[in-house]
Amino acid sequence: MEKSQLFGRRLPLEQAPASGHGIPALRQVNGRWRCQRCQQWVATTDYLPQQIPYCRHCLNLGRLTAHTKLYTIPEPNQFATLTESPLNWPGQLSPIQLAAAQAVKRYTMAGRDQLLWAVTGAGKTEIGFPALAWALQQGWRVAWTSPRVDVCLELAPRLAQAFTVPQTVLYGGQALPYKYCPLTICTTHQLLRFEAAFDWLIVDEVDAFPLATSPLLQLAVKRAQKPTGSHLYLTATPGRDLQRQVQRRQLAVTYLPLRYHGYLLPPIQVRLVGNWRQRLSQPRLPGAILRRLRRYQQTQQRYLLFVPHVADLSPVQHALQHAHLDGGVTVHAADPDRQSKVQAIRDQQVTSLITTTILERGVTFPAVNVVILGGDDAVFSTAALVQMAGRVGRHPDHPGGEVICYCHSQTRAVQRAQRMIRTLNRKGRRLGGRRP
Amino acid sequence: MKNCVWCQRPVTSGVTLAAMWRWAPLPSPNLCAVCQKRLRPLHAPQCPRCGRQQSTTKVCHDCERWGDSWVNHAIFPYDATLKAYMQQYKFQGDYRLRLVMQPYLRQALAQERYDVLVPIPVTAETWLTRGFNQVTGWLTDQPFQQVLTVDAARKPRPQSSKTRQERLQSPQPFSLQPGATKLLRNQHVLLLDDVYTTGRTLRHAATQIYLGGAKAVTSLTLAR
Ligand SMILES: [Zn+2]
Ligand SMILES: [Zn+2]
Predict the structure, then answer these.
(1) Å from CA of A378 to ligand 2 middle
(2) pTM of this prediction?
(3) Is the ipTM of this complex over 0.85?
(4) Looking at CA atoms only, how far is residue A150 from chain B in angstroms?
């Protein structure tokens, strides 16, 4: 095995490598076993025959048992500084984007932990480019990570085009082997395989599941970063924890409250519709919803209809057909035809898609309205609601569109989402943002 | 509160989800309602020989090609759910997932008629890396006899990575443990394996079991 494979990593190996040192993968602390990769406690029920404990928490990175050893070689900082910028991107930032990009770069140079709070459709990836170019030029080792594999997959080819440094991509089930490179693109989960490796970490969609709710992944980010390193969080919807860190000045913050086309975000309009779920079993939907969808169909406006649960998809479709509306196409996370269905609405072959939260981020459609059924359901977090609303009006030719949220009752999450959009639009207006 | 052993979601004994599936038996207290619903047992019409789910009750093409009268029973179709299960349990080595299938195996074994239960063994090498036999992991208190051993040198690649042709041509990997004949003579033996794919493995095992003096050999697999 190439020695560099172990630089700043923490790998279970069958055989001890020529150099590097190993530690037991599981350690006993006060009679309980603790995994040294993910730092989780091993339950007393999780053992192999002969009472050999193993860790179930990080199983999909390769099973660790009390007999496994983890090997590492401390990160040697072997990347050369570059005389020229590695950025090879033909695009141009708008004046507002440029101001944000310069702020991000300044904080990066100062080694500050920071947050870029950019609205959906602001072009936050490219805003990170100048800072990243500077970091790579210094010979820094950098990781661009996201809790979502689809974000990584979408990002990797863009970074490969924009930066002339060697890059490696890491995610569950990847096709190419890992290489020691100045730039690593990986899921945050994969960071559990690193230790004090990166001078700078970018965490894209930091509020997305599962990172936002997982102490394991938060720890992974912390441990993969060098003690001297820093990180940049990217998000459109920071959770309260991040906002608190901003208030306490633990995180420097750069706001980008305007989309790249300069229009404000569509507000979330809430409509109370009584107990729609009860009627759905008939199968019926409240008249207000049907009237709106009928109007969309008659005027040939595309829409995304979000429902809380996979189990709601087909009753909603039936209720629409029952009302003589086009039932549209349904799609959910485990749907085997997910890719082709999403492509169909992108290509404007279908006019409506009924879906769960999988499409809440990352996926861009040219001109759609968003209808959220049961926005008060517990599965819809504030971030999810803002992200769903963010599907609307992303294209410069179609900056308008509606976001209607049908609820049985108002909830905190819905109110916070409305407030977040209002606050961002207030900041956006100060920068000259216009109503579509 | 308990968590589902498979998906880790809390197992709710409450109203909403449980009520929707009340008609279904609850074979596994370790599973949440969602995971239980994902596990859909094989149902008729099936091939009368291998248990494969199909559109008729005729002997399927594969069984016809074997030209014997082998009888296999299976519990689940080897679909995406079962593949995901086997991936985590067998290939990632999540031994705790044995709990998912134990109730199903108990139920299925209770319906089988046999004298001696013989699980398909794993190689010594697999024991070293995986640390368990995935088949015996599903057994709770059912007595079984480990009368077969498997030769690693003859099982160079995992079954799942071979083509059908290669699998059919694979040499006999099994041999009998010393003293096996005492246990097998004149007995009806039930072989137990994880997945029936071509039936090659089970037939190799049966050849040896018959050499040990068994009067009948049939098989039960988790999946077909
Ligand atoms: Zn672990
Ligand atoms: Zn479950």
Answers:
(1) 19
(2) 0.80
(3) yes
(4) 20
